[in-house]
Design a protein that fits this description.
Blueprint: H1 3-22, E1 38-39, H2 41-47, H3 53-61, E2 68-70, E3 77-81, H4 82-89
Antiparallel strand pairs: 1-3, 2-3
Length: 93
């Protein structure tokens, strides 16, 4: 890593720390105003007519839609952000 790159990183970190200490700007957007709605695979099929569980599982396997596994290992429940699913189906994502 070059000295200029190190100086650039240090300047960014210093800027973020000063914003944090000043409290002028929030560093992370609040999600309270826009709660994130998560759907199970079955709920996805109920929400979008014509979509089946196999298709959702294939999209997950190909990493075409984001997901979170809530629980341990392969037995964990798969949760999909509703907004991301709709965006994908609309061709936005």
């Amino acid at each position: 890593m070059t000295q200029a790159k190190k100086q650039d990183i240090l300047a960014k970190v210093t800027s973020l720390l000063s914003k944090l200490l000043d409290g002028d700007e929030p560093l992370v957007e609040s999600t309270v105003e826009h709660p994130l709605e998560m759907l199970t695979i079955k709920e996805c099929t109920q929400e979008i007519q014509g979509l089946n569980e196999f298709t959702i599982r294939q999209l997950i396997a190909r990493n075409e839609i984001p997901f979170v596994r809530a629980g341990q290992g392969k037995n964990g429940k798969i949760l999909i952000p509703k907004a991301a699913l709709i965006a994908y189906l609309n061709g936005i994502a």
